[in-house]
UniProtKB/TrEMBL annotation:
Residues 144-243 form the Mandelate racemase/muconate lactonizing enzyme C-terminal domain. InterPro entries: Enolase-like_C_sf (IPR036849), Enolase-like_N (IPR029017), Enolase_C-like (IPR029065), Mandel_Rmase/mucon_lact_enz_CS (IPR018110), Mandelate_racemase_C (IPR013342), Mandelate_racemase_N_dom (IPR013341). PANTHER family: O-SUCCINYLBENZOATE SYNTHASE, O-SUCCINYLBENZOATE SYNTHASE-RELATED. The lineage of its organism: Bacteria, Pseudomonadati, Pseudomonadota, Alphaproteobacteria, Acetobacterales. Belongs to the mandelate racemase/muconate lactonizing enzyme family. It comes from the Bacteria. Gene3D superfamilies: Enolase-like C-terminal domain (3.20.20.120), Enolase-like, N-terminal domain (3.30.390.10). This is Cycloisomerase.
Length: 376
């Protein structure tokens, strides 16, 4: 039995990318630039796969930790491994290092990119085949300057964008209420409004706040309270008409089992960097589907490589039906490392055609599209 392509080189790039706008998102603020790690795997037969670890230090790890994990601990496991034995590779990485889900997700996407290219099929094909060709795009209203966000909405809505997620709980409640009112006044029900508190509310006073914002008919309210307050989340899910979505409360399948058992949410945000990759995300969605919880395609600060992986995942995972927030390369990063950006059409992300992740990346496009802080 031939074992197929063997991975014989791992290269990593710690990169920093400038961003166009400040983002204030409750758990942390970002201004100026974001860091992430890009991964290039090459096989002995000359195939190349790209991956990306896009951690955020308030959510998973610092980017420097992902870089060190890849360089020191995962390199000896990955180099020499047959690309086809991916699940075995994931198990070995888990035995070698606990956590570090972003680094492991980055390796997995590079391996799947190679396997797709080797067979002439897309990663979505490897994950079961497409159930959708486009994914509705949600844009986050998170600029400290709300007027700037409202102006963005006035140009995005006519272009077909319908999904907007307001980062509430960063400013005083009265300001949030005024902003939600301004959005509904300007756009009525043509926009699908979602709210994300990023754990900002204290359980002590959250119910009154949530009942207040409920009147703006959001599609869901994401993570109103800190992640471990599952019983409080269950209370809001039971009391409110608006569904409650778990993000920080639900990193992986073990978290999800607890969310389901305690009825703490009606939906979940799936992020490759939280759960450790596409296979783990599909494992989570098997649980979520069974429990009747739809998924939403969340992000940290991913660039085009990781978002291509997210796009392939959602294309092949029916339960992730609430859209995605894959807007970074089009709206936030001033540049990206792909030779061509993944197209957005009519308020949706178009799942790229072509083998593997469906994107073109090269060392030249990486050096052109990001500032390299370290490489190994
Ligand atoms: Mg969130």
């Amino acid at each position: 039995m031939p074992q197929g392509p063997i991975i014989d080189r791992l290269r990593i790039f710690l990169v920093e990318s400038p961003i166009k706008m400040a983002r204030a998102q409750g758990v942390g603020s970002v201004k100026g630039s974001v860091k992430r790690v890009l991964i290039e795997l090459t096989t002995a037969c000359g195939l190349t796969g790209w991956g990306e670890a896009a951690p955020w230090e308030v959510f998973t790890n610092p980017a420097e930790a992902a870089y060190a994990t890849l360089d020191v601990y995962l390199r000896p496991i990955v180099v020499g491994h047959p690309a086809r034995r991916l699940r075995e590779l994931l198990a070995k990485m888990d035995r070698a290092v606990i956590g570090q889900t972003d680094a492991k997700a980055g390796i997995e996407m590079a391996v799947l990119d190679i396997l797709g290219k080797a067979q002439g099929v897309s990663v979505a094909d490897l994950l079961g085949g497409r159930v959708r060709d486009t994914i509705p795009l949600s844009f986050s209203i998170a600029d400290p300057d709300f007027a700037a966000d409202l102006a963005r909405m006035h140009s995005m809505v006519p272009a077909g964008n319908r999904l907007f997620k307001v980062k509430t709980g960063v400013k005083p409640h009265a300001e949030d209420m005024a902003h939600l009112e301004a959005i509904r006044d300007a756009f009525g029900d043509t926009v699908d409004l979602r709210l994300d508190y990023n754990q900002a509310l204290a359980p002590f006073a959250a119910m009154a706040v949530l009942r207040d914002v409920d009147r703006f008919r959001p599609t869901f309210i994401e993570q109103p309270v800190p992640r471990r307050h599952l019983d409080s989340m269950a209370g809001y899910a039971a009391a409110l008409d608006t569904p409650i979505l778990a993000d920080e409360s639900c990193y992986d399948a073990a978290d999800l089992l607890e969310v389901v058992q305690r009825r703490a949410a009606d939906a979940i945000s799936v992020k490759l960097m939280k759960c450790g990759g596409m296979l783990r995300a599909q494992q989570m969605m098997a649980i979520a589907d069974t429990a009747g919880l739809p998924g939403y395609g969340g992000t940290l600060w991913e660039g085009g490589i990781a978002l291509a992986a997210g796009t392939q995942l959602i294309a092949a995972t029916p339960g992730i039906s609430l859209g995605c927030e894959f807007y970074m390369p089009h709206h936030v990063l001033t540049e990206d490392v792909l030779e061509q950006r993944i197209p957005h059409e009519n308020g949706a992300v178009v799942v790229p055609e072509g083998p593997g992740l469906g994107i073109a990346v090269s060392e030249a496009s990486v050096r052109h599209g990001a500032r390299i802080l370290a490489e190994a």
